[in-house]
Amino acid sequence: MAKLLINLKKIVFSRLVITIMLVAAQAYFLFATFYWLSNYMPVISVILMLLSGVLLIYVVNRDINPAFKLTWAIPLCLFPLFGGLLYLYVETNFITISIKKTINRRIEEGKPYLEQNKEIRKRLNGKSVSMSAISRYVENTGGFPTYENTKVTYFPFGEDKFEDLLPELEKAEHFILMEYFIIYEGSVWSSILEILKRKAAEGVEIKLMYDGTCAINGLPRKYEESLRKAGIDVRIFLPAVPFFSTHQNHRDHRKILVIDGKVAYNGGINLADEYANITHPYGCWKDTAVKIEGDAVQSYTMMFLQLWYSIGSESNPGYLPGDYLKYLPKKTAKRQEAPFQKEGWDIPEDGYVMPYGDGPNSRHALAENVYLDMMNRANRYIHVMTPYFITDNETMRAFKYAAERGTEVKLIVPHIPDKKVIFDVTRISYPVLLRAGVKVYEYTPGFIHAKTVISDDNKAVVGSINFDFRSLYHHFECATYIYRNPVIAEIEADFQNTLKDCQEVTMEYYLSIPWYRRLLGKVLNFFSPLL
Question: Which of 9, 10, 385, 509 sits in a 20 to 30 Å window from 299, CA-based?
């Protein structure tokens, strides 16, 4: 009994529960204030109604996804007395606005270090119209070039990635750059941290950046101080605060690890035990990642540094935009003299790798448009693995259009969700997809966290980008686009192996889902752009 009371006390007074209570208190105070104003201050009520009307016109004319317009237009019309103030309260956050501007400055600084090789552009133009087009788009809107001379290794599970990662960390001689959404204490993080501490003692420069949500429920309070004492340079991306605002959704969801500018890792795998199936909170955890070796590592190095310098103080000793050069390879005159070429690599002449990133700092829906391009250009098949499927009209139409024109479209989602209410929103898409001819499957052994897309045996994307509003509009994300590289066959083989552990979704199966869960999903779908 005493142990139960101690555990209950820990839960009640945990930072997560306290944060939830503070946000709830702010929400109650906000709506209570609105109610009081509307009932006892007629003049202010008229002003608030006019404000809601002006904001309604502003929202309808904004250059944003129509789903966001609808989400705000309805409350502005239904609740004119407090809808306008609610919109201003939620959409105005000077901290994140400042961060976005700083990130865009860093991106401009980094453009000279991410110039597209003109010879590669010429070869690409002559080999594939579709790949050349998406390559130009990503270069023009995101500033990310396309590379040759790059080897890609695919990991179908988290434990495969960590088995490969630990020896690579041991080889580090100059620097290690790490950026992760989640770091939780456990076997995985302990094994990595042990190497990092030892490497820091040897003089290897280590930069670690993790998202501020870790400070709520994942890591001890002021954990970064103990890391700094071990010689690890740490920065926290937008520490989460108990403030009621959807701009708290602007999280750093990326997973990037760069070693000496020679090797980079990317995918959906965070640094926690469930990602390596050491613990099993939702059954078998299915996730994927890629290892990049060669020229394309440069893009991940720059992605990390641009965000790193955006959240650090510019007054830090030694900070200069030119500091990027310390982490980038020297230019070579000939392609065959690239600094990280290894003997025995079998890289076909027509293989290309294009790392790219996206975030709320950009007015371009780059991540979504890359997915849409793959969907719309697929001829034989398009295969997708994603933990969440909460999409806007454009993405849903792309799935339907691909299936209706005869392309094989297969979608794998979890059977055991990590967030039940979010899964309810995912499932309400089943009838629409099935009627269009999309094959939908649920991964029965557990939770599928992979964000993988394969098309026609010649294109694949592996990264951190889910098919939901969070990833496509709110989060900072990244992924690796692979074209005509032999690793694509391995990625497709993994998809087919995963299908063997799935059950196909039918209308009968959908109708067997409890009616109240389906109803809840439909209600929550209205708020999906803000989830």
Answer: 385
Summarised one tens digit per residue, pLDDT across range 215-270 is 666 788 889 999 999 999 999 988 766 554 444 668 899 999 999 999 999 999 99
DSSP code at position 241: -
- The segment with the largest mean pLDDT, out of 8-22, 336-350, 352-366, is 352-366
Cβ–Cβ under 8 Å, residues 473 and 359? no
Confidence tier at 326 by pLDDT (50, 70, 90): confident
The amino acid that residue 390 corresponds to is I
The answer to whether the CB of 437 falls within 8 A of the CB of 399 is no
Residue corresponding to tokens 């890391």:
227
Tokens of 51: 């404000």
The Cα 289–Cα 296 span in angstroms is: 15
CA gyration radius for the chain?
A: 24
- Cα 496 from chain centroid (whole Å): 24
Q: Can you state the percent helix, strand and coil of the chain, rounding each to 5?
A: 50, 20, 30
Contact 212, 219 (CB under 8 A): no
- Measured between alpha carbons, how far is 398 from 406 in angstroms, rounded to an integer? 13
Q: What is the architecture, at CATH level 2, of domain 366-530?
A: 2-Layer Sandwich (3.30)
Residues 6 or more apart whose CB falls under 8 angstroms from that of 432 comprise 396, 400
Region of residue 283 (left: phi > 0; alpha: psi -120 to 50; beta: else): left
CB 300 within 8 A of CB 307: no
Distances (CA, A) of 280 to 137, 274, 447: 40, 6, 10
Cα gap 192→164, rounded to integer Å: 12
Q: Please, are residues 494 and 450 in contact by the beta-carbon 8 Å criterion? A: no
Could you give the CA distance from residue 196 to residue 5 in angstroms, rounded to a whole number?
Answer: 38
DSSP for 433-448 reads: HHHHT-EEEEETTEEE
> Which residues, listed in sequence order, are joined to residue 281 by a DSSP beta bridge?
283
Q: Which residue spans of the chain are classified as CATH 3.30.870.10?
A: 117-128+145-349, 366-530
Give the type of residue at 246: T
Architecture field, domain 117-128+145-349:
2-Layer Sandwich (3.30)
